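Q: Please design a sequence for this.
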């Protein structure tokens, strides 16, 4: 009966994700046009794009040369086109205006400033789930870091294609390479991605404790090695919605002590210390916002299914359904709301330990419980944030850089509350699973160059714990 209710609730959430409520967004007119008839777009002139192909920019605009637009909608259409071009993440600035020609048609001018696309970036990363865990659990131990270099070109052929190579050493080792091309066919509606890598780890989180911490196995040398290769195909006929199919080949080998009764025989749900398996996935994603990195209005949703392993039960075999929906609402006087819900369902309920991750990973997060993990085979979270923009300003660069003439800074104050629930069979029960969870807090978000967002939050939870947490996002 419990499984039946969970399945019904989960597929009900999928229906809402596929049929989200419609919300009209009306912009204030900045162009005075008295004629209520349609106006023809005679041409679109793009300037400022040195690397990016012009047709990639035009592909992201909802109107083209020869189209007619109702005069009353000109400002709204221009604003929407600007959002769509900016959200390619290829430009730091996008401006769209027009010139009225002699025949009363419009020449649309699109002026862009390109980002830096090539980043040979030194890497200094933590092996822990978050900065907060590294600070509070491991006292900022610098032995628990990986270092190296990441070379990424975000627009290698001017078609928004990305190529990257990563070389890391330290507490873990990683060599990876990948290439993605979202516009691989002449009509710019299909894409593909390929990647591969090798990783070695000096420790493994082999079990979750009753108090929702993680036990770690380590010894001299590396205790886990993995190889992976992935290929994916994407389809995007419109502007906001895309779907994709992925195939991953994985090989994982761990130290044989982990599967003993002293540690966790259920780690792989098998007595084999090495596993070769596939991950086959299908995903649908939708994003229609003013700015993808830190949206203030619009909506985002995604849902899909991943089949792991060659069978359906036993070992690491697993079928996972997942979905998330986020709504961004702009109120008056620079007040904003963000409403997010996410869920996952894993079948069968008897899962290997490596398949039990839930709250604390991916879209499933509760602010104030960052130091804990909640394993589950069915989980859902709800997050609400109410924020206010305090100030927005620009800092001039002390030296001249054409691509970055200034550093933009916006500061938001916010308050938030989160709730969640994770179900797992009784034999894996912990103090935070199979119970209603709630947290809250307040904080400051700082948004700056290249959509880098620094979030300083003071959170509390139902356990009576409270503290300061630091999170980040966006960037290169």
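A: Design:
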């Amino acid at each position: 009966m419990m499984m039946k209710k969970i399945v019904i609730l989960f597929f009900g959430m999928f229906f809402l994700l596929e049929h989200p409520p419609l919300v009209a967004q009306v912009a204030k007119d900045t162009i005075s046009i008295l004629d209520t008839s349609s106006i023809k777009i005679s041409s679109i002139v793009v300037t400022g794009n040195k690397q990016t192909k012009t047709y990639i920019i035009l592909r992201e605009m909802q109107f083209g040369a020869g189209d007619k637009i109702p005069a009353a909608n000109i400002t709204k259409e221009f604003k929407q086109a600007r959002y769509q071009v900016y959200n390619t993440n290829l430009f730091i600035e996008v401006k769209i205006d027009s010139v009225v020609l002699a025949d009363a048609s419009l020449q649309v001018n699109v002026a862009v400033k390109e980002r830096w696309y090539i980043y040979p970036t030194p890497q200094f990363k933590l092996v822990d789930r978050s900065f907060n865990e590294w600070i509070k659990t491991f006292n900022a131990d610098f032995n628990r870091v990986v270092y190296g270099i990441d070379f990424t070109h975000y627009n290698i052929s001017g078609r928004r294609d990305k190529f990257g190579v990563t070389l890391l050493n330290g507490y873990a080792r990683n060599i990876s390479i990948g290439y993605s091309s979202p516009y691989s066919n002449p009509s710019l509606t299909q894409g593909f991605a390929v990647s591969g890598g090798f990783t070695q780890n000096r420790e493994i989180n082999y079990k979750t404790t009753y108090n929702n911490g993680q036990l770690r196995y380590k010894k001299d040398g590396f205790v886990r090695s993995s190889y992976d290769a992935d290929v994916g195909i994407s389809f995007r006929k419109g502007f906001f919605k895309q779907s994709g199919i992925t195939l991953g080949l994985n090989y994982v080998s761990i130290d044989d002590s982990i599967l003993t009764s002293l540690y966790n025989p259920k780690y792989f749900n098998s007595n084999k210390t090495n596993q070769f398996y596939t991950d086959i996935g299908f995903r649908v994603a939708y994003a229609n916002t003013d700015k993808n990195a830190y949206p203030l209005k619009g909506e985002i949703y995604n849902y899909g299914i991943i089949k792991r392993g060659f069978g359906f039960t036993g070992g690491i075999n697993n079928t996972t359904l997942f979905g998330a929906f986020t709504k961004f609402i702009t109120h008056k006087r620079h007040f904003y709301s963000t409403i997010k819900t996410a869920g996952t369902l894993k079948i069968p309920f008897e899962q290997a330990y490596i398949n039990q991750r839930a709250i604390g990973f991916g879209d499933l997060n509760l602010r104030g419980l960052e130091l804990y993990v909640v394993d589950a085979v069915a989980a859902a979270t709800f997050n609400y944030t109410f924020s206010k923009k305090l100030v927005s300003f620009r800092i001039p660069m002390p030296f001249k850089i054409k691509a970055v003439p200034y550093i933009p800074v916006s500061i938001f104050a916010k308050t938030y509350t989160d709730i969640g629930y994770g179900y797992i069979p009784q034999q894996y029960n912990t103090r935070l699973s199979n119970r209603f969870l709630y947290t809250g807090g307040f904080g400051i978000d700082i948004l700056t160059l290249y959509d880098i967002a620094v979030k300083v939050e003071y959170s509390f939870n139902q356990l009576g714990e409270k503290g300061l947490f630091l999170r980040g996002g966006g960037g290169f």
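Q: Thanks. Anything notable?
A: Residues 2-18 form the longest helix (17 residues). Confidence is low (pLDDT under 50) at residues 1-35.
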